[in-house]
Amino acid sequence: MPRFLSAKPDARLIPLPWNVPLAKWPTEHLVALPRGISRHVVRFITVGDEVYAAKEVIEHLAIHEYRLLHDLTRLGTPAVEAVAVVSGRQDLEGNPLDSILITKHLEFALPYRSLFTPGVRHETVMRLLDAMVVLLARLHLQGFMWGDVSLSNILFRRDAGSFAAYLVDAETGELHDRLTDGQRAHDLDIARTNVFGDFCDLQAGGMLDESLDPMVLVDTIESRYQELWNELTGMEEFSGSELYRIESRVRRLNALGFDVAELDIRTSADGQTVTLQPKVVDAGHHSRRLLRLTGLDTEENQARRLLNDLDTFRARTNQQDVDEAVVAHQWLTEFFEPVVNAVPPELQGKRDPAQIYHEVLDYRWYMSEREKREVPLSVATQGYIRDILRNLPDEAMVRDAMVQVQEGDNRQLANPYDPSLGYADDDDLPPVHDPWEDAAQDVDVSQLNHFDINELRARG
Ligand SMILES: Nc1ncnc2c1ncn2[C@@H]1O[C@H](COP(=O)(O)OP(=O)(O)O)[C@@H](O)[C@H]1O
Ligand SMILES: [Mg+2]
Fold first, then answer.
1. How far is the CA of 39 from the centre of ligand 2 (A)?
2. What Pfam families does this protein map onto (predicted)?
3. Does residue 278 sit within a domain?
């Protein structure tokens, strides 16, 4: 009898064929979705309306990873959510099988290889690197040393015009009270080595734009990380006549999406010099505000955009003196919800609601510019659904993703549930190229506000 370790068990998982090695599971329980390269056997399994990722791994590692993922979720760090560990498995002959770690499939996650394809704009790549850097800094702020940063161990999600990065593989992680500079440097070193390897792989497969040099890319990761870390934690010294710098530091940190828990401010005996060191709590400054006001759970830049729209609404309707929560409720029911509810069910898998709203706002802006008039939101919504949303690839990628991808691809996968095995008619071993990702379209970021440390600094 297998044992289930789980804080929130899903009873529908219990009858699954745990006595079969994961690689041989009947396809009725599986769903073919894109994913990164892995050491272990990984499959996406489906029960009811839920999709889980299952990884076959030895017991103590499965439990270690389960606990770490739990801790990260508790700390509010973006990571996949641990659901259960199934251990004590045996096959029909009574031979022991490895444990299985089950996590919730992260919806709307984009496979990195479709994000770095040729033709992707330089800026997009920089935004992906920024998302990685923010993830790494957030983990480090929490005392988490990853030990295995790589592109395959990160999932990217759209976040307005930028991306948000999630940790997917915590097997080598360690959680400490706080990290030493040495530990952070070590993690960054691993990131450099692995990500350099990932980029070289992409390059060898002709999947990296020629203008992008792997070495420059990893240098960028390092320098942006150092910059962000200094902004988040660095000590600042200024004269007693420049006290406004305290306020501007807080504003800059908020602009980066981080909240400040404490400011350690010291003044020299003669009052001439002030030193300032912030203690930053986690990112999510805007998404927490939006959640508090509206109950919407979004990524940070999406929240920024939605809050801007809310603030605009408040100003236009002259409600500056009305309680913010009351205005937020009005905005939610009169603006946000009608847009999201206008999306037909069959198109809902293409974008999450906050992303749709953000893209409708963009669409309206361009349409208004073109037509030199103020386009009503309802008109923009219909236009967006018709011109843009309908033509986008499905990003929730649940269930019918397999069918869709196969229609666009004449070649047969060796195993549709394990895209890393490549095509059936391939003679060469083992292709790194993931055919699922060919079907995923280029990312359109021809516009939009984005995360740029320098720009935010300048604004701050
Ligand atoms: N919960 C999840 N949601 C979405 N994708 C996942 C999830 N868990 C794993 N994956 C995909 O499976 C791949 C392999 O998982 P990972 O935990 O990194 O395995 P390994 O330890 O063998 O490297 C990842 O790169 C990711 O693309
Ligand atoms: Mg991995």
1. 6
2. DUF4032, Kdo
3. yes
Q: Is the CB of 12 inside a 6 Å radius of any atom of ligand 1?
A: no
Phi, psi of 416 (to 5 degrees): -60, -20
Nearest ligand 1 atom to the CA of 106 is: 3
Q: Which atom of ligand 1 is nearest to the CA of 169?
A: 17
Helix axes 214-233, 122-141, angle to 10 degrees: 40
Task: Specify whether 14 is located in the same domain as 155.
Answer: no
- Is residue 420 within 6 Å of ligand 1 at its C-beta? no
Residue nearest to atom 15 of ligand 1 (CA): 38
Residue 169 Cα, ligand 2 centroid: separation in angstroms? 5
Ligand 1 in contact with 198 (CB < 6 A)?
Answer: no
If one counts every other C-beta atom within 10 angstroms of the C-beta of residue 180, the result is: 10
Mutual angle of helices 181-204 and 122-141, in 10-degree steps = 150
**Radius of gyration of the chain, Cα coordinates, nearest whole angstrom:** 24
The pLDDT tens digits for 39-70 are 899 999 999 989 999 999 999 999 999 999 99
Q: Which residues contact 77 (CB under 8 A, 6 or more apart)?
A: 138, 139, 142, 144, 167, 282
Q: Which residues on neighbouring strands pair with residue 275, listed in sequence order?
A: 237, 266
Query: Given ligand 1 and candidates 37, 44, 55, 432, which is best to mutate, with the most ligand atoms within 8 Å of its CB?
Result: 55
For the record, the structure tokens of 433 come out as 């190229």
Task: Determine contact, residues 20/43, Cβ cutoff 8 Å.
Answer: no
Q: Which of 376, 378, 381, 349 is nearest to 363 (CA)?
A: 381
* Residue closest by Cα to atom 13 of ligand 1: 36
CATH number assigned to the domain comprising residue 128: 1.10.510.10
Tokens (6 digits) for 230: 């200094």
> Is there a domain that residue 200 lies in?
yes
The number of folded domains in the chain is: 4
418 in contact with ligand 1, CB cutoff 6 A: no
- Taking the centre of ligand 2 as the mean of its atom positions, its distance from the CA of residue 147, in whole angstroms, is 11
d(CA 279, CA 302): 25
Nearest to 308 by CA among 342, 331, 330: 331
With the most atoms of ligand 1 within 8 angstroms of its CB, the residue from 40, 41, 42 to mutate is 42
pLDDT in tens, 290-342: 988 998 989 989 998 999 999 999 988 999 889 988 999 999 999 999 999 99
